[in-house]
Design goal:
Layout (H helix, E strand, L loop, with lengths): L18 H4 L1 H8 L25 H5 L5 E5 L5 E8 L2 E8 L5 E3 L10 E3 L5 E6 L8 E6 L6 E2 L8 E5 L7 E6 L8 E6 L5 E3 L7 E6 L5 E8 L3 E6 L8 E7 L4 E6 L6 E5 L7 E6 L4 E7 L6 E7 L4 E8 L3 E5 L2 H14 L3 E7 L5 E7 L6 E6 L4 E7 L12 E7 L5 E7 L12 E5 L15 H8 L3 E5 L9 H5 L8 H15 L3 E11 L1 H12 L6 E5 L5 H6 L9 H7 L7 H6 L13 E6 L7 H13 L4 E6 L9 H18 L2 H4 L1
Parallel strand pairs: 30-31, 30-32, 32-33, 33-34, 34-35
Antiparallel strand pairs: 1-2, 2-3, 3-4, 5-6, 6-7, 7-8, 9-10, 10-11, 11-12, 13-14, 14-15, 15-16, 17-18, 18-19, 19-20, 21-22, 22-23, 24-25, 25-26, 26-27, 28-29, 29-31
């Protein structure tokens, strides 16, 4: 299974119900391209931000020079995404050669993700104008035999399984027959022929294959709120339901054991935190607990296909962490840390023989670099810096912090301070409160271009993992149910007040900014706390819970009952949903607002922004509105990112009166 994330993506999901976040396999299948788009050496004891080295806005938001490196199965070539006419396209290069071959020349929309199904071919995905109806294309690495495999109108393509041991086939999902559900197809990459492997009866939300490429596990939604595991011994057998749980409980099969008998899974059955277990899939029973972290959910499990061993369990505390099952894999990381240990290290790709690795480094102040490590020669060779124009010495530190909510929950957060400030010296700074999207996602530690941009402009930036954020266990997640605009919002308010009490934030110069759910939280923050925030920036945020529920993508429809239990039902919870819909309370908003929206957004329909802009204008409240006709849930085209952040900077400077404070 391959990851499709790139640095150009934003991290502000307004997502499908939490079962997709809890279940990594289903989450990957159904969100595919998650539009989810550093230590200073000097110390400044003055109370004003250091702004002498203002970095051009474009340096933060232009496309990476080269990124998303992968390696061919035989290890002879590596591939990457790089700009061509301001769009990210696929290039390949033979190891040891300076010749670079450009495979794609997309000029309307960047390639969203790609991978190697075999040594001769690249597959990639692209949508139109942000509509998220991704189409699958393929091309040989010598630029021949380009094929549009799934160029169907209003159809979304998913990659279900890349079948690494079957070089000329992959398993894809299409909602071609029924826009609400996805059927699995076996795609022949040479001929383009597709064979439907099963007809989705309407409740199957994910499929899983064994190591031989046989379809043997399915995930179903029952009665809208329960989740069933379906199993069959062979593809000739009928499906049997082996386990049904509430969607609040989770067994997420990661992969079959190497004898194709049981599965390795993450599970929170009978526990608060998701742990790694061996699971008897035929009988729906947990066999062995393999690893459990007392504080954090395990988010995934890695394994060596060649050596047939589990290698690590992955989880996130304040940073990404691993628990190692395998000494050889642990020794590999120790070897990499010997040369690269000043940075966080991630293995992002390897050849089939598992002796040549693509390595990515990063930190809170750097987008990092790519390296190639050859185990035979024991040499680490630098390939490229992702954004060489970024000098990490001019970037800001990101501090993990935590605070208590009014009802006693511990909230983990990240505070980014302008260059030269420390936790001890930061006083009365203009501050941006930045709640994340999702909302069933989380913020993490690392380089975030927009956070660094705001810090470079003199702002402290505060990101909090309010209740419902993932990775902190079942109880913390469930604490968010039907709490949009209520306790979830209070967590954000409590964090803002914590900054004021610490003396870090200037109470007269605090703005709130967020995207997707974070945009909704921005609007609700201005409604609930009209005297706390001097301004707000809402980026593709929900304003009306009723219209939001009516305009979701069709493939979210089977999960609506889940959404109703987690957020609220438009019928039985209508009074509550009206109470937490910002559009009905614009009379309480006094702070100026800037709103940005993509016209083709399939998650948060443009009507969400249109209606609150109209309501605010009717009341004479200052509102600026930016709409991009060729964008969806967040701005991906480089020129649109420039426009948005340039307008946001001017808006924040004016509303927080930053220039007069310098």
């Amino acid at each position: 299974m391959h990851s499709f994330a790139t640095e150009s993506q934003n991290h502000f999901l307004l997502d499908v119900p939490k079962t997709y976040i809890m279940n990594r396999k289903i989450y990957f299948i159904f969100t595919m391209i998650g539009i989810i788009l550093l230590a200073a050496s000097c110390t400044n004891t003055e109370k004003k931000p250091m702004t002498a080295k203002q970095i051009p806005l474009e340096d933060f938001f232009k496309n990476p020079e080269q990124t998303s490196y992968q390696i061919s199965p035989d290890g002879d070539y590596y591939s990457f995404l790089a700009p061509y006419e301001n769009r990210m396209n696929v290039f390949v290069q033979k190891r040891g050669s300076d010749e670079v071959i450009q495979l794609t020349a997309e000029t309307d929309r960047s390639i969203m993700g790609y991978f190697w199904p075999n040594n001769e071919r690249i597959l990639y995905l692209k949508d139109t104008g942000g509509d998220e109806n991704f189409k699958l294309y393929g091309i040989n690495i010598d630029s021949t035999n380009a094929i549009a495999y799934t160029e169907f109108e209003n159809v979304r393509t998913q990659i279900i399984d890349d079948l690494p041991d079957i070089p000329n086939e992959v398993i894809i999902g299409l909602n071609k027959r029924n826009p609400q559900v996805f059927d699995p197809y076996r795609l022949n990459l040479e001929t383009g022929e597709m064979e439907m492997l099963a007809e989705n009866p309407g409740n199957i939300q994910g499929w899983m294959f064994d190591h031989d490429g046989k379809l043997r596990v399915a995930f179903a939604i029952v009665d809208g709120i329960n989740v069933s595991l379906l199993y069959r011994e062979t593809e000739a057998d009928e499906w049997e339901t082996v386990l049904t749980t509430s969607f609040k409980d989770n067994v997420s099969p990661e992969f079959f054991t190497f004898d194709n008998k049981n599965v390795i899974a993450t599970s929170n059955l009978g526990r608060d935190k998701s742990a790694v277990v061996e699971f008897d899939i035929a009988n729906g029973k947990e066999l062995d607990l393999l690893y459990e972290n007392p504080d954090y959910d395990v988010s995934g499990v890695s394994y060596s296909k060649k050596r047939k061993v589990m290698t690590s369990a992955n989880y996130t505390s304040s940073k990404r962490e691993k628990h190692f099952f395998d000494k050889e894999y642990e020794d590999l990381y120790k070897r990499l840390e010997k040369d690269l240990g000043d940075y966080e290290i991630a293995i992002t790709g390897m050849n089939k023989n598992e002796d040549v690795f693509i390595i990515r480094t990063y930190s809170d102040r750097s987008l990092g670099s790519y390296y190639i490590y050859d185990m035979a020669s024991d040499k680490i060779e630098k390939i490229t810096d992702v954004s060489p124009w970024i000098d990490e010495n001019n970037m800001a530190n990101v501090y993990p912090v935590k605070y208590k909510t009014r009802d006693g929950l511990t909230i983990h957060a990240y505070l980014t301070l302008p260059l030269g400030y420390t936790m001890e010296t930061a006083k009365n700074l203009p501050t941006i409160i930045n709640p994340h999207g999702g909302p069933w996602a989380r913020d993490g530690w690392g380089f975030n271009p927009e956070i660094q941009f705001l810090a470079n402009r003199g702002f402290a930036v505060f990101q909090m993992n309010f209740r419902g954020s993932t990775g902190y266990g079942k109880k913390f997640w469930e604490a968010s149910f039907k709490k949009w605009g209520k306790e979830m919002q209070d967590d954000i308010t409590d964090g803002t007040n914590w900054l004021i009490e610490k003396g870090i934030a200037d109470p007269n110069k605090i703005a709130i900014y967020g995207a997707s759910y974070g945009g909704y939280a921005t609007l609700m923050g201005l409604v609930k706390e009209p005297n706390l925030y001097a301004a707000g920036v809402d980026y593709v945020g929900v304003s009306n819970m009723f219209t939001f529920m009516k305009t979701i993508p069709p493939y979210w429809e089977p999960m609506l009952a889940m959404m109703y239990e987690m957020v609220g039902s438009p019928t039985t919870d209508s009074l509550m949903l009206r109470e937490v819909s910002p559009v009905f309370h614009v009379d309480k908003i006094v702070a100026p607002l800037f709103i940005a929206q993509g016209a083709n957004d399939p998650r948060v329909n443009i009507d969400e922004s249109d209606q609150i802009v109209e309501a605010m204008k009717d009341r004479g409240i200052t509102v600026e509105y930016m709409v991009k006709d060729n964008e969806g849930h967040g701005f991906h085209n480089e020129e649109n990112r420039f426009d948005f952040y340039r307008a946001m900077e001017a808006f924040l400077n004016e509303q927080l009166d930053v220039k007069k404070s310098e």
